[in-house]
């Protein structure tokens, strides 16, 4: 919290002309607390804290509240409060804690707002190193959750003779579409220098959590695909992940779980040399 305070605009309570704007500090405090609870797997609390951070941003979209004051250097703002990370935290927390279809719909709406905020940040000259990859991976994760939830509901409640509904053909193909988008664009967006499946692909622009998310999502998609093939379900969408993509996904997880055992690791580092030490 002390580090958060150092990065924020701090109102001068002894200055009668100071407007006392501490919204940046409060926004980041809620965000940090939410991230801490997310790390502790307390997703309901993480969501509530993220929503408090979002509320601060949402209130400035009206006509009355002035823009949030941020820390400046030589008269230039050092950041911009768009709510990007707060929206993203809420989207992830809402997805993971969801038990109803509308909650997953809300997760996607929050993710859309996070994507919009990223574009605003970029327009203002910030978030230049933030890629869209984790947003695409989160979108795929939401699609996977929608598929799993609908499969469970249909198995429980619907006529098992209607196999198209039972096996959620439309949801499965929508998930494949999100997978295709991720694999088709990740090379350029993350500057991998090669296709995702290529052993020489460089993942240093991506953080470890993002890499785990991508790898786990790809593996889940491959499992779903194998299940559907075993049930002889027809697919209208292209399934973009091949055996090499699956192998790469499993290799990335191996690198992170046991880096000393893999070919990608520097001997003096606990983290693979294809990875960075940040999220």
Describe the structure concisely for a colleague:
The chain has 279 residues and is an all-alpha fold. The protein is built from ten helices and two strands. A hairpin with a 2-residue loop joins β1 and β2.
What would your notes on this structure say?
With about 280 residues, the protein is mostly helical. The chain folds into two domains: about 1-105; about 130-279, no CATH class. About 60% of the residues lie in helices and about 0% in strands. It has ten helices and two strands, in the order H-H-H-E-E-H-H-H-H-H-H-H. Strands 1-2 form a two-stranded antiparallel sheet. Helix 2 (about 25-40) packs antiparallel against helix 3 (about 45-60) and helix 6 runs parallel beside helix 9. The protein is globular, with a radius of gyration of 21 Å. About 35% of the residues are buried. Residues about 1-5, about 10-15, about 260-275 and about 275-279 have low confidence and may be disordered.
Classify the helix fraction into a percent range: 55-70%
Shape annotation: globular
**Tally of contiguous helical segments:** 10
The largest β sheet comes out as: 2 strands, antiparallel
Q: Name the poorly predicted regions.
A: 1-5, 11-16, 262-273, 275-279
Q: How much of the residues is beta strand, in percent?
A: under 5%
| Terminal residue distance | 19 Å
Provide the domain count: 2
Order of helices and strands: HHHEEHHHHHHH
Strand order of the largest sheet: 1-2
Structural class: mainly alpha
SSE arrangement:
Layout: H1 2-6, H2 23-39, H3 43-59, E1 72-73, E2 76-77, H4 84-97, H5 101-123, H6 133-157, H7 163-166, H8 169-189, H9 208-230, H10 243-257
